[in-house]
Amino acid sequence: QVQLVESGGGLVQAGGSLRLSCAASGRTFSSYAMAWFRQAPGKEREFVAAMRWSGSSTYYADSVKGRFTISTDNAKNTVYLQMNTRKPEDTAVYYCAADLLQYGSRWYLGIGYDYWGQGTQVTVSS
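RE: above sequence
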């Protein structure tokens, strides 16, 4: 069974950096896409970033492009979200997600993810 456990959130000041981690277990993830989503208070969950576990291409929402970086560490079975130049509007619960790649999958658009972590809260103060 796939398990995704996020960590690294907290209360931080605007402008600095923070790295979120997602420990993945229960599968060999080489055939999966991994993504980060976030949900701010009173708003719908939104796509943040995605990549294939074994690939190099990355995809980002316009709101985080140039500031956030998604990456994977095969040895640690972990997905990261490096958050630079944080803004108060980045305040949200951040979720890690996994999608088994299939023909026609639109994983790069943040669509069709089957497995989710419990989320980690990130609060950015101005």
